[in-house]
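User: I'm putting together notes for a lab meeting next week and I want to include a structural view of one of the chains we've been expressing. I don't have a solved structure, so I'd like a prediction I can at least talk through. The sequence is below, exactly as it appears in our construct file.
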Amino acid sequence: MRFCLDADQVALRDAVRDMLALECPPALVRAAWPPGDPAAVAALWRDLARMGLFGAAVSVHCGGLGLGETDLVPILTEVGYAAVPLPVAETMAVAAPLLAATGDPGGYLPGVLAGTTRVAIAGAGDLVPYGMLADLVLVLRDGRARIVEPLTTAVVSTVDGSRAAARLALPSAGTVTDDPELVDLCLDRADLATAAQLLGLGRRMLDLTVGYVGTRRQFGAPIGSFQAVQHRLADALLGLEFAMPAVLAAGWALAHRTGSRRQDVSIAVLLAGDAARTMAKTAIQCHGAIGYTVEYDLHLYAKRTWALAASCGTDSHLDRLAAALDLPKGGFP
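Assistant: Thanks for the context. Below is the predicted structure for the 333-residue chain, given as structure tokens.
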């Protein structure tokens, strides 16, 4: 099966790309790092709401755009490319469609669609990326999906300061659904969103690196003319190109609820994570010492890559694929 974007998907992707290029430059990502500029970041959220993105995966009769998971992949890739310092993927791809599917028992959906309510997703140990910015937190545990208003906040320093992580007290109430299929669907959507963002981050680091090696000169020539540099970048590009169809395939499997959905999502996460990590390593190496400095923009995208890749549950996805392939536990003798 061949996976590629149709004309409507390309048009929406380009509209999001153009808007983020203008409204979310590296300076705005830096503004999300402590001590930051909350007003500038909040303005970006309002701009995204005006585009209707938070209703992208919500049905038309609930006030959304009625798009499927395949349509979300190019949007989320652009969100990753810009390293948007807000819980866009969590709100748009996971929380909003869940609220719509369950009848919005808490009455939160209108605020989500209007851009007045931000939703983050709780991680292990109640660590919540974007917890300092979230109005609500989605908790996906023990076969239940809960949406709660967080209580106390403890700021947590992480590798990517722009994600404003916090450790929150999350009430035990607020159950939206205990339907295992819906909960699994939320988890798969979150994983798909992570994979798509990792692809976008990889593309951004590739573009930064190609621009740098084309102007940085040694021995009287651009370092991009050296075969060692070209080969490293070609290998990194190959990883990204190889992962992209897998992420689109996972989106298609989710949209059509295929029997292989879970395996397809795991393949997408693993390939995108490996490609983005490889790109980050290659980009830093090609930039030399400048690649490690906080003054240079590369670190904004490399650190987001490391944070997302570390949180995507690589071991669980490998276990899922091993079980699907009926591989023996503990490896081969």
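A couple of points you could mention at the meeting. The first helix runs from residue 7 to 23. The chain has a mean pLDDT of 93.

User: Perfect, that's what I needed.
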